[in-house]
Amino acid sequence: MLTEKSHRVGDLTLEYVEAGSGDPLVLLHGFSGNWRSWSQEIGLLSHRWRVIAPGSRGHGGSSSAPDGQYGYDVRVADAASFIADVADGPVILGGHSMGGATAMGIAGLHPGLVRAVVLEDPHVSAGYVEWVDELKRRRDLLRSRPTFAELATAIQTDSPETNAAATRLSTAKQTAMDPEAYNPFIEESMFDGFDPDSVLSAIRCPVLLMQAEFNLGGVVTDDAAARLQDLIPDCTHVKFPGTGHNIHEDAPIEFRRTLFDFLDTI
To answer: Does the domain formed by 3-126+194-263 have CATH 3.20.20.70?
Structure first.
């Protein structure tokens, strides 16, 4: 049974859901998502694992940052504190996109909390110049408190290839966001103070890296994937040709097969 809960982390309350029993498996959603980003995976995984899916600050039912801080450092600190308090022992840690970047930080900086990591097309660096104007438009629209229909129209305009049901879900997720969470991307300050080489080279647990197709919206280039494999001693790399950034949504069967193949070795 899926149970919705909340947990206090510093000045924040983080929403999370939990299902199943067994060894803990924590799933971190990407930017502009929430735990519902994993809704199709939680039930499947909960047959074997105690699945815990928290919402990050400023997303879903989690608190907005009282100080307006949404950078990488506070994301990692929030998630590490949450795992230490809520999970029972070292966890399997999965993360998509921004959640994947957060998972890498936890594995490198808090190794005692993690026994294995699954990275789904993780953000590995700054460099969002080509997206800044679109991100500003979306932030400013959310600041104006648009109706559901207004926001859905904007999302559909930006991504006309997305079907109406997926657009509706994306609208629901972004309606529940703090617009200020966009600021570190717009200001290109998300990874300020982050030295990826030192953090990634400190990871000692097994890692599964799932890479999407860069030309279809993936954020991990071939060079970045090769660099991750160089830095992480035990890194299993699987590329998904013809698949965009949301691998678990765009190629669910291959995603699940790859995930369970890896988990069966842990």
So the answer is: no
